[in-house]
Design goal:
31% of the residues lie in helices and 26% in strands. The protein is of the alpha+beta class and 115 residues long. The chain is globular and about 45 Å long.
Amino acid sequence: MTEHKQFLYTLQLTRTEMLLDGGTREERDVVDAHYQRLKRLAAEGVVLLAGRTQNADASTFGIVILEADDEAEAERLMLEDPAVVHGVMQAKLYPYRIAAAAPNLGTSSPPKNRQ
């Protein structure tokens, strides 16, 4: 049995104007395919977390944290992302390890009182 390793890849739009103009029809279709794939991979347990910053300027970025057998598999998963394949986003892969996570990670529950 192979122990899975964790990886993180960052994503940045190749055309940041998409944040302001909503993107072309093709860009929107690619982003939808990207999102649908992330949801499928999350349901399969491959993607552990995915999301993006909420600022609407050139510094915005997304992250995908995933599990893979090795770096080659993680790189393949990253390079097969529709947003990367179609040049809507650029990606960079990093070895990663989650050290702590909230039990409600991924839910829309409000944070508990931290007092």
